[in-house]
Write a structure and sequence with these properties.
By secondary structure, the protein is α/β, with parallel strands linked by helices. It has four helices and 28 strands. It has helices at residues 195-200, 205-220, 225-235, 240-250; strands at residues 4-5, 10-11, 16-17, 22-23, 28-29, 33-35, 40-41, 46-47, 51-53, 58-59, 64-67, 80-83, 88-89, 94-96, 104-107, 112-113, 118-119, 124-125, 130-131, 136-137, 142-143, 148-149, 154-155, 160-161, 166-167, 172-173, 181-184, 189-193. The protein is elongated and about 65 Å long.
Length: 258
């Protein structure tokens, strides 16, 4: 099986196309682009390298991937975009390469980037995330697995979004977003566990109950963060989910939305 390239598409001679790749009308595939097997690129979409896309990704019309970062410090140093498998990039989505700081922007598997979403330079995105329309991330943001960002969420650079977090529409992310939790509002605050999201991701009732207890100790008790972490360490640190929560909180450099 070979690639199917529309006669109006422009494909650089150094680009590498896997079996079953399809490229639509007027799409542009630049130098040092690798498209994995079964990947489709829609009309007028543009991909610039160095960029590597794994298998079965879908790039919809007018999406723009792998262009140089929007960073005034960028001076053309080598960097790249690395994308896993079975991601969906809808219309006018923009994903930029890294800078000299880390060298790459990285995206995992089976993420869904809706129209007009933006991922800036040096971000690291996990797998199974959903970015709703116009959700935008500044540079150097880390996103765990199973995260849902609602419409018009804006992420400040160097923040982190923990795994299985849900962030409500129009929420400004100024500090880290706790994993497993719902965060919402113009003055972003947590509002309990993301129980529906956890259930949809296969968390058992027992796992959810343990996380609910951990959340109440961390946020709802009258303990300060240091005291709450000490209590979590003594009571619940044997549970992997709580261990991840503790490590996330104690490694926060910008604080976290409470």
């Amino acid at each position: 099986m070979t690639a199917a390239v529309h006669p109006t598409a422009i494909v650089a001679s150094s680009a590498r196309l896997g079996d079953g790749v399809s490229i639509g009308p007027y799409a542009m595939i630049g130098d040092e682009v690798v498209l994995g097997p079964g990947t489709s690129v829609g009309a007028y979409a543009s991909i610039q390298g160095p960029t590597v896309l794994g298998s079965e990704n879908r790039v919809f019309p007018h999406a723009v991937l792998g262009f140089e970062p929007q960073d005034l410090k960028y001076r053309g140093e080598p960097s790249r975009l690395v994308v896993g498998a079975r991601n969906i990039f809808r219309e006018f989505c923009t994903i930029h390469r890294g800078t000299a700081a880390t060298g790459e922007t990285v995206i995992g598997d089976e993420n869904f980037f809706l129209a007009y979403t933006h991922v800036a330079h040096d971000c690291h995105i996990g797998s199974h995330c959903i970015f709703s329309n116009n959700a935008s991330l500044g540079g150097h943001i880390e996103v765990g697995d199973g995260v849902v960002l609602s419409a018009f969420v804006g992420g400040h650079q160097f923040t982190r979004i923990g795994s299985y977090a849900f962030v409500g529409a129009f929420t400004p992310i100024r500090q880290d977003i706790l994993p497993f939790c719902k965060t919402d509002g113009n003055d972003a605050k947590t509002y309990g566990l993301n129980k529906i999201g956890l259930e949809r991701n296969g968390f058992s009732k027992e796992r959810v109950a343990i996380l609910d207890k951990a959340y109440r100790i961390l946020i709802r008790s009258k303990l300060n963060t240091k005291q709450a972490v000490e209590r979590l360490e003594s009571e619940l640190s044997g549970h992997p989910d709580v261990r991840y929560l503790i490590d996330f909180v104690t490694s926060a450099k910008r604080g976290f939305h409470r």
